[in-house]
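Model the whole thing, not chain by chain.
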Amino acid sequence: MKALNKYLAVASVAARSNLAYFGEAASRLLFLAVILYIFMRLWKVTYTETGAAQLGGFSLEQMLWYLAVTESIMLSAPRVALLVDEDVRTGALTLQLVRPLAYPMYRLWTTMGERVVRFAVNGLAASVVAWVLVGPIPWNPLGLLALLVSLPLAFAIDFLGNFLIGLGAFWLEDTSGLVLIYSRITMILGGMLIPLEFFPDAVRPIMQALPFASMVYGPARAFVRPDLAELTVLVVRQGLAVLAFSVLIGLVYRMALRRVFANGG
Amino acid sequence: MNLAVELDGLRKTFTVSKGSLFKRTRREVVAVDGVSFAVPQGQSVALIGPNGAGKSTTIKMLTGILHPTSGNARVLGLVPWNERGRLAYHLGVVFGQRSQLWYHLPPSDTFNLLASVYGLDKADFAKRRDMLIERFGLAPFLDTQVRKLSLGQRMRAEIAASLLHKPSVLFLDEPTIGLDVVARQELRDLIREWNREEGLTVFLTSHDAGDIESVAKRVIVINHGRVVLDDKVSTVRRKYLGCKVLSVKFHEAFSTIALDGVTVLKTNGYALKLEVDTELVSIERVIHEVLQAGQVADITIEDPPLEEVIAHIYAAASNPEENGYAEEEVKTT
């Protein structure tokens, strides 16, 4: 219980600290509103031109609200890998290692605190844009529950992926290239712009099974098209991804700690 | 005597790779080479040495961040690299060049966070925090965002933050770096007070001789990974330069002083500055000569600055062959 309290305190401080970045939050929101408006307009034109009531099983309302959720998720991601990379390369890691905290847990909870604030702000702005363009999404408590359950797990998977890349700094000169590849793969395979239903049947099951889908597509789809059975599958997939990544990170982190040089203070 | 820190033959080597992908050379670099010493509880020790001497590596092993290649160490009876989690509750660590305070939040928020991290009892924490706020003069800026504080204010808050959980050993790595003269002195006074009043063991690394003089009673000099000197600060000063500086002001013109072991550093009107090698000539003899040279208005005797002492020690210890230090080439592929 004490351990949980300390990490909740870490998350709370990280959340409050993030609120201090007014300039950054404002520019992020502006970017979110602009790209969301463009993509939503594109989808609106697509639906109008094809005359279809549904595409890939999504109505126009569902599609635009799906986009609102996926964009909010993607743009709420803190730069975990770069922070870990920086901690390793500058030796700032030493400051965390001399405290009664586990460094991966410290980074997990700072990320969670920060991301919850960012997602809440993004979600609010994205909802306004979606509401203005297509009105509210039909109220479904299961959709909200799906989001509340799957989102923390999605954030955890994304954190673990990024943390793993950041640990690469123990062996690589620079991990920014890996970060770029990871974020682009997440955008495409995670279904940020196009739901996975639009991909060919041959690759869709593979994409759905990958952790990228559990991070973006899964929670957004569960929110706009809630289904208890599908939610269960999603949560199981997310749980397995968290487990697999955690084991991997446990091994890599142990090796990494052996390589701590942190020279020169 | 209870020991706070014990090191026995502590050694740390790093492997450094060089060259291209196909022709890589690996060298084993000895960062710490069999360091042994013990520090009793409540003592204030300065660990000094030139850049790359191995002092930071030693501190990192003592705080459990690095595993040694060989040798043993105990801090408060615990093996740091095996029991880092337990030890962390009893250590305070301040890195002058890194901050533990949250940059966009006031120091009070970091204090509250640290209370949770160290699992402090609410009432105990409030009492301790209030005492530190008063002693470190933090009240005027306690609720100001860290980014808006001066470096001096920030460092006071940093040290107070590292004392919140009542550590038994405080590691200070260049705590006064970048501070102005006043802030530096304030900080030194606070550390010294804490060392005396709370019986806190202070382990200081610094390049600033003033820090060492003000804070530490004992100085351990490390060079090329080895302890080259371990003695009281006052003894080191006396033993290693064996000279005093005499500043004399006369009422009138004075005659020349010519004595073996006396060097005239400066003359300016009726003022004279002499360096006296006390191994060659006694201070009494020199004062006698000075009084003969003219009518004296004022006379002061000073020890040489510690910077000179340290420079002297570094110079004496800088020959790698003499110290048996060398990078060992172990493998070429």
